[in-house]
Write a structure and sequence with these properties.
heterodimer, A: Uridine Diphospho-n-acetylenolpyruvylglucosamine Reductase, domain 3, Enolase-like, domain 1, 3 domains, about 30% helix, globular, B: alpha+beta, Aldehyde Oxidoreductase, domain 4, FAD (chain A)
């Protein structure tokens, strides 16, 4: 919560001090720079610019530019999975036609972030590493079961998207790994802008549904953002194996509302947001189910 | 105008304004003044919300205090009354703010006409309409601790 202080803003020269921008050529070089302890990564630079806007000191004296590292800007469809480089801009992610066919929830979420000018700058890695519970891409990636491939000076490891808070300052997200959807999978993203103008979402919900050969639900996932500890992967245990009808949608939406803790802010009270989480969970699930049931080759 | 019954969210589709500003001295300029005033009226009606605590605004920035943008502007129809103001220059009178004033009240009336909820305090938020449609004020005030009485 921001509170306006009295008097003029304090003049602190550290907040306007220039930071050195380092441009490593390789990932190993970048990791060595970050291991020094006085450096922070910069992707699109949005978080760093916001710090300046808020009169906060730079995150570190040295900023290590990572968006242009080899492979960081690539989206690659492998035989078993998809990798999205941490330096991929959200605008490019939203426009990727392969991903739009495989996991529309991800391209929809990326395309719903802020404005076009900001999406041209923001990198996927930076958006995730910012650990803002209202950010859109982490919600979608949580629903599809994506993992973060993380590299540090001491080695590589894998984190779930919901474990981004465990990233250490000397580590970088290298890429995000998404499983390939099975046949008859649908996914969808819903972002509720309660005032109809651009702002942080009142609620944002991602849904993914995989159907079995007989049309029953084989896999079901819902993730909710803009809530305490978000994105939250909703526990839908026991809701698979049935037909994807309105009873299932209602039961899953109830779980989403019961399993999340929204907070009151300018976009609505916590009580209202709980109702909206249920409503937009229903909408996201219905879209995802329709896409899963659509014949192969149609809009999914 | 449309109100989403599941969320209370308002979409203004079309708005007509007829303005009596005396003799219209410069028609395109006067029309622009009215269009701008309607935009500001829509902001006052729907998007601009000022929250106070301990005498200070809780969110003193434009990322939370949302001004209306082109995206929320409806299709507009602007007409002027055939009128003459004897005390004004060339029969004209002010046009700057006059078209702003009725916008919040017509939005409130349109909401009441659409879903039967009369909101008496600005802005007319989706949440106020939502609870109004459900008549669940008791639910709201008991479960929304800390935010009571701020007119949500």
């Amino acid at each position: 919560m921001t509170t306006l202080g009295f008097g003029s803003l304090p003049v602190d020269t550290t907040t306007t001090a220039p930071a050195a921008l380092l441009t490593p050529r390789t990932l190993d070089e970048a990791l060595r720079m970050l291991a020094g302890g006085d450096a922070a990564p910069v992707g699109g630079g949005v978080a760093h610019v916001l710090r300046r806007h808020d009169h906060l000191a730079p995150a570190a004296a040295k900023l290590v530019s990572v968006a242009g590292l080899p492979g960081f800007g690539d989206i690659t469809v492998h035989a078993e999975h998809v990798t999205i480089g941490a330096g991929v801009r959200l605008g490019a992610l939203a426009a990727d036609e392969r991903l739009a066919r495989l996991w529309p929830v991800v391209t929809e979420a990326a395309g719903s972030v802020a404005t076009g000018r900001i999406r041209r700058l923001v990198t996927l890695g930076g958006n995730i590493a910012a650990r803002d519970e209202s950010h859109d891409p982490p919600v979608a990636l949580t629903a599809v079961g994506a993992a973060l491939a993380v590299r540090g000076a001491t080695g590589a490891r894998t984190l779930a998207v919901t474990e981004a808070d465990r990233l250490r300052p000397d580590e970088l997200i290298e890429h995000v790994r998404l499983p390939l959807p099975t046949a008859r999978t649908g996914s969808a993203y819903e972002k509720f802008l309660v005032r109809g103008v651009w702002e942080y979402a009142c609620v944002n919900v991602a849904a993914a549904v995989a159907l079995a050969e007989d049309g029953t639900v084989r896999q079901l996932a819902l993730a909710v953002g803009s809530v305490a500890g978000g994105p939250v992967a909703v526990d839908l245990m026991g809701l698979t194996g049935v037909r994807p009808d309105r009873h299932l949608v209602a039961a899953a939406a109830d779980r989403a509302a019961a399993g999340t803790t929204p907070y009151s802010d300018v976009t609505g009270s916590a009580a209202y947001k709980t109702r909206m989480i249920a409503e937009f969970s229903r909408r996201a699930l219905i879209s995802a189910i329709r896409r899963a049931e659509a014949p192969e080759g149609e809009d999914r | 105008m449309e109100v989403d019954p599941a969320t209370g969210a308002v979409t203004v589709l079309e708005l007509a304004a007829v303005v009596d500003c005396g003799t219209v001295l410069n028609p395109p300029l006067a029309e622009g003044q009215v269009e701008g005033a309607i935009a500001q009226g829509l902001g006052m009606a729907l998007t601009e919300r000022f929250d106070w605590r301990d005498g200070a605004p809780t969110r003193p920035n434009f990322s939370d205090y949302k001004l209306p943008t082109a995206g929320v502007m409806p299709q507009l129809h602007v007409e002027f009354a055939d009128s003459y103001e004897p005390t004004g220059p060339f029969g004209a009178k002010g046009v700057g703010e006059i078209a702003l004033d009725p916008v919040p009240s017509i939005i409130a009336s349109a909401v009441a006409d659409a879903v039967g909820v009369r909101v008496h305090e600005l802005p007319i938020t989706a949440e106020k309409i939502y609870w109004g449609m459900r008549d669940e004020d008791s639910v709201r005030t008991t479960s929304d601790t800390g935010e009571e009485g701020d007119g949500r």
